[in-house]
Amino acid sequence: MLEDDRVIEESILRNWYSGNAMPQLAGHSLLGGGNPMRWMIDRTLAPAEIPSSYIEFYSGDRLPGRTIAHHDAAVEYQADMPEYFEVAPSFPFNRSDSSYRQVIRVRRDFVRKIVWQQVPALTDRHVPSTLFLTNGREIQFRAIRFDSAGVNLLAGRERMSFGFQELAELHFDRESYWDTHLKELAILFPGGTVESSDRQRLVQWETADGLVATTSVQRIDAESHGDNNNSDRWSHGIQPAWSLDTIWVACRSTWMWRSWHFDTVPLFRLPLTESREGAMFSRGGFAARINRGVLGGTAGSGQRPVGWSLGVMAPSRLSFPLPEWAVGFQTSVAIDQAAHDRGCIQGEVLFSWEGKPKFASETLVGSSQVASSGNLRIDDVPQNAELILAADPVYEGRPEGADPFDIRDMTNWLEPSLLLDQQTLREKIRARTTGTILAWHDWKLENDLSQLRFANTLRRVQYPYESPSWRTTVAAVDEPLRLTIKKKIAPETKYLEIVTAKFEGPDQPEISVRINGIPVMTAPLQNTNSNDHVHSPPPYLINVTPFAGSEATIEVSQSVAQGDLSIDWRGLHFREQPSFLLPVLETPTQNDVNKMTTLAGEPGNVILRDDIRQLSRPLIETPDGEWIQIANFDSPIEIRERPEPGQFRQLRFAVSKTGKGHALIRFLHENEEDSPAIYAIGTRNAGQGIIELNPRSFDNKKEIDENWQVITPDLYSNFRELDITGIAVKSVGESSCLWDQIYFAGTAWYLDRNLSVNPTNSNWDNWQKRSEELLPGLTKATLQVHRPGKPVRPAVMVDQGSGILAMLGDDDWKPGTEMEVTRHDGKTFTAKQLGKDESSQFGLLQIVSIEQDGGWQQYNLSSRTEFDWQYSHLIFQPGEEPGQLAWDICRPLTYDKRVVIVTKPHTFTCEVGAIAVDRDHQFSGFVTEVAPNGQPVISIARPLVEKWHDLKNQQN
């Protein structure tokens, strides 16, 4: 049946064998063009009986199968998941080549009732907030809560609990139909628009197995198993809004497809209430049936087949909720074919706020007569309005020969359809779209929705824990997408983890993060590897410890990308530890060290090292001779070939030996005696069963230089599957070992997400020695600037010949303004302000009459265009005593190329205006602010280099 009421038929359905093809029948396109199908039926099949167990959804969709488990809303495999049920379907639903899960996950917020054991009297009925037990007991409840395999009820003042095996049917409270309908459309048509307009349709499958499932044209996939011209070889992958998984349906099992434009609602999808007041001989039953005759079986009237219907026994008065944006309605009414040429009714369509029927049919006798309402316009719908379909048995004035009273007055409302205002509907869908992106919950979208483009994107992955499914994705069109949240970050929180995905295009757009206005990350989005979850891009990781325990405003943005590339937002999570890395030794404390013992349980005599020499401090030093257990795991660490989230394969650790000898690292597990798992570093004579890594690292040492080795072995390749219960280390060769940065990861690629100074930099980047060389010169290069009414701030000499100093300025900086500056020896000079870069607030000063008396030292501004997160900075400012500097070596915690937050100095309280020096002995930047927990925020000095000429010559 096409939209223009024309019926076409053919013995072969064509062309629907791939995801980018649309079905054709008798040469007519069924889901595209200007005259698509309203419904299509396979007359070789028959509709299913009501299944013995199923889930029914708010719209009348039905999933046959047994509900076996419940899951609360949570994060699963790094992605936000809604509350859902697991259903074991009673029909084949997977692709032929799939070894994926054997359940379908359905969203709790779309479920109307769950049936474990069908109660025939409740078919097509909904009794709100009621539980029906297998023993026949009926319980109305005030509140319900689920555990994994049962329910907990509050009924009156009594609390009750039941396992799923005790339940026959569970009917949920009556939710607002139209709110849920808009949520469904926002998932199926994100943003309220679809290109092209002829694809803005919904399609419903009803199968011979009892499945009734509705989705949009965009969320349909197809594949052929052999002959593309044989529809019996096709399967269609569909994903209704209520399903978290794609459901694969064999074409040969589909009895009927129904289709309608997104601004149309077939009335069988709306909740109904029925009154049969006035019934006489039929008052003992005959409740309304959906898409069936009131006596069962398919509804039929007149000579024309129908795609959907409501079957009632007159007298019947059906009421349906109407939204304020309803604009039209149409239906036909007739007596069911089961009455043959008998029965007598009159059908009426009424609107609850109007005094008389909008449509009244003539008196109909027998099933051959069909009365059409035509298109009924609806104007000015008030709140709480209802549409009413009344079937009157015409007790008085019946035509001669008609059945008396209400005998055989079986009535069918044929293809009743409600029309909604399209523009209003689009606006309401658009407004609800952001709420369907679960990762954005609790976050505020700062954009106007017109600046974004939403889409349905098929996430084509084939992971052990995830198969292809449709996701709502978003592209920033005119300006970056911006999400913000203001919250107190828990003291124990270390990271913000951002989980996103894209499947095409270059490494763009970029994801950027600011905390309290401070840039903390900018990184390009990389493509997801569809077939290898292990090597797909890991989440982005932002260290939030500088703000832990404080209220912070966080902004996450997605840049505009060429081609409007859509991004799948999967999670924005605050975590104590990364989901994809397991730090074993990262920032140990003295309490951690105190727990480290020998394998025999004796004190381990481990030393916590926190000296400047070690860039990634703090770390541990273990003595020679004994195995020292440095980690113990309550739940074993699972090493697997293809690790899922929470499992691992790679290890990274750093080790240094203070003298000759070698080091051992051992992975404790249950079968150690038969299959030891030990690495040796720095020897070729480790012994049988020990895997040797970097065999020459330590053996040939001639002096104690503490050179680091950073090693990333593949645990699975070396030891196969392993369940690690602890880690022990051993130093061999009359000297201790240093250990640092021990991490487990799924792949070495994941380790790159962790911002950490590489210990091997200590092998040549000796800050202990470097600081001794730098500090005398830095003392002579640093001056204190006395600003009227403001704290003293440091400046550094960057051009001794001209007496030019660089410093962090203020908003009231004015070229030509004079002020006093004091040198390390207490001598005071007059300096005037030159130019200031407005974006960075960095400014230049010039000593009016500089004396070349040997009391100065010049250092250059760094020419680097961006910071390097792998290296530390020397941060300094004038000390409490004249002529002294307060200083420390600080490593990056966050990185955004031109702004980094570094670790809090151990030896002094850092102030705004402090100065940073890089590994090249150049001024790398200035501390522009201090994070709530004392960590300096360094902004790169590059703006002074880029604008040097203009700033130097700006006098007033």
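(ticket continues) Second input and output from the same batch:
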Amino acid sequence: MTDRNRTRDTASKRTSQPRRLSAIEEVDLQEELREMEQEEELIRREAEIRRKKQRLRRQREEQHENFVKRLIFTAFLVIVAIILTVLLIVYIGTGRKHTAASGETNADSFTVTGGSDEREASGTGSASLQDVIRNKKSTAPKADRVTLSAVGDNLVSQRILDQALERGNGSYDFSYVYADMKAFFGAHELNWVDVETVINDRIEPAGYPTFSTPGKNGQDLKEAGLNIFSLSNNHTNDLGLEGVEASLSYWAAFTAGEKNVLTTGLWKTKDGTGSLSGLTGSYEQKGLHAQPDVYAGEIPVYTCENGRKVAFLSYTEMSNMDEAGDIYGTPQDASARIIYTYETDLIRAQIQKAKEEADAVVVACHWGEEDTHQINESQKKLARDLAGWGADLIIGDHPHVVQDGAWIDTADGRRVFCVYSLGNFVSTQEQPDEIIGVALDCTLSFTGEGEETVVEVKEPKLVPIVTDYGEGGTNAKVCLLSGYTEQQASANGMNTLLAESGSKERFTLEYIRGVLEKNISSEFLKME
């Protein structure tokens, strides 16, 4: 063997033997093994945690499913219980009605026989039986409702007379004036309006200052849906005795045979025989004539579709003055008169009588200062008094501009709503605020019967309205603001009047909204 071969053989033997690890390498290897074991332990623990979470999630899902099932089952049992209870109540109520009806039949057919002593005893027994029957009838309070609207001054100027005559081709036609309000009034059973001018068929039509309006205006108001007409205001006595009697004659014929139309505010001073039957004594105040007694037997009451009765009372703070500066008092020999707001004991007596005859009492006052949005202290005091005496709702007008509404709390725990001024219903007056009004929209809610009746005014809202007219007051009509456009506002004849007066103000939707939002609380204002 050569030296080269021996060298190759020796090298081959060295490579075939395993290399021994150093101490450091062994320590590193052991550390790597421990880290691998720790990682495996960590993986195992995480896997175990995931399995536990899955088990808990399944448990919660099962618990939720069981809860829902129990809830559905419980609701089902409650519904079944309610249905059974209602059926039982209906069954018992039907049985009571049947028993009461049978008892009434027996009582009506009860025959009295024998002598006078027996008849007296039998009569007493019969009355007692009927009392028992009445007491057995259900006395549980019931709640029902009546919708009511009210609008302010129906101020028929010479301009409105002229356009009505033109539309009627020789006779008067006011239907155009109110056509846009029909749907609004149609949504209410009671629709109140202040008849600011003397409507009649006797006196020649005339505008300001002593208004006389042809009877067709009343017919067209009724056709638009209005059915409660207040005749008490500062213009009632403008035409003297002739005007008062002409107005009485017109409205008597207008309401004859009409169960759904009512007037208020012109109070009879004599009964049907012509004799006096006063509710209180006469009244007098500086500047006014002595006032005759008011006939006690007359309280205007409207019977609603659901049987509820609503009394309507109207009063005025003032009467106009003639050219000499004298106030138009009650004309001598007039068979009816207005009642002034200073006649407080008479008003209180009427409210008390109205509460005896009706379920609810609505009181209207023609009061306040013209062309101001401010409510004065005399208005506030009278409103508090009216509420305290028993009024359930108070309606105000006369200022020709809107004034705010308010809740009045009474000593007996009632809450009475008062709107101090509805503004004008329709008008061709020449100040921008005078053609902006509101319509009261509310519901009277009744609970209980007789003296136990509770009346609440629900959700009173003041709905804006605008009198739209062209230049010179032509084509006047009343519109709901909710349907009034910017184009209509720009074309309103009020803008011509403002420009002629040198005012920089313009009659726009923004102006209208500003007037309303400034003077009516957001709680009551219904812009849309």
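Agent notes: The chain has 13 helices and 18 strands. Confidence is low (pLDDT under 50) at residues 2-16, 96-140. Closing as not reproducible unless the customer responds.
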